[in-house]
């Protein structure tokens, strides 16, 4: 049997029904409209701010020397192996100088000839050829004097009518011939003397100087028949020439002058070789501090920019822009590294472009632009202070935000996104 509702209960149910309808309508209205996000206030205060440029590079030994064959020959002895530690002055390998000795003997013979020729020309004025020319001139003069005396006597007899005219004319012709002989002998003597002076003497001296230089050069090469370590370090294999196969160092292998045989790399001083794009080139200066890290060594190294290339590196044909070579000096590595530094290790560089011990940075969204073009932020000195418009001068971007000037510690408004 169904009981009838009392008036009190009916009124209560009606009120509940109306309240439910209103609540459902409010839920429907709120679901159809987005919620308005509120702006946030961020605390800002002076802090250490840094701006860094990231680069990648490779370690390179500062002290590295490639030893080449000083002359054509064969390897006679190899005393080291790749990777071996050597000390400065230690003999690494020796070449067979047989071919060089042949050139040395030839150079010695040429030097002796040049020395003899130079001495002969230096004493030319007292030599046999000049003495012979002088004797010829003296004989011609003596014959002329005798002929002239006979001519005088014959002319006196002719004037007295004792000799015939024909005899006088014959003697006159003879004296003229003797005068020509004296003139020719004088010219011959002058020509002979000239052979030991001027161009001939200079040529002899030049040939002597060339012979001496060649002799000294070959003797210097002979002295290098044993290649020694120019510095303390480790023996490395030199890069192959023109993409060829590396040279196998063993006795009997023929080598040519200038052929790279081996290298020695020092382990005391290192530098990093990197490249920077032209768009970042204006940020760098020589002497800037650099933090150096790498996967091959646990410790962080420190250095400074040593040099910046003045000409772009166009070795990479795939590069779209210009790149410039940068060298970074590495300070003495800390002692106790788990693994020693090795040439060719990859590195990550962080060039310290800017450091401010009391810098101010704000989130980029906090910066606003006024109608007058001035940049400002909404600022509160304290959390409950009244907000005000604060003009600022923006600077470079750092990891904490954007560096600004003209702002004190407090709170800035970051508009809701």
From TrEMBL:
Statement: the UniProt record of this protein carries the keyword Coiled coil: yes
Annotated localization: Cell envelope
Coiled coil: 168-221
Pfam families in UniProt: BSH_RND
Superkingdom, taxonomy of origin: Bacteria
Presence of the UniProt keyword ATP-binding in the record: no
InterPro entries: MdtA-like_BSH (IPR058625), UPF0194_transport (IPR050465)
Occurrences of domain Multidrug resistance protein MdtA-like barrel-sandwich hybrid (ranges): 64-237
Principal location: other
Keywords recorded for this protein, A-Z: Coiled coil
Similarity-based family: Belongs to the membrane fusion protein (MFP) (TC 8.A.1) family.
Protein's UniProt name: HlyD family efflux transporter periplasmic adaptor subunit
The species this protein was found in: Pseudomonas muyukensis
Source lineage: Bacteria, Pseudomonadati, Pseudomonadota, Gammaproteobacteria, Pseudomonadales
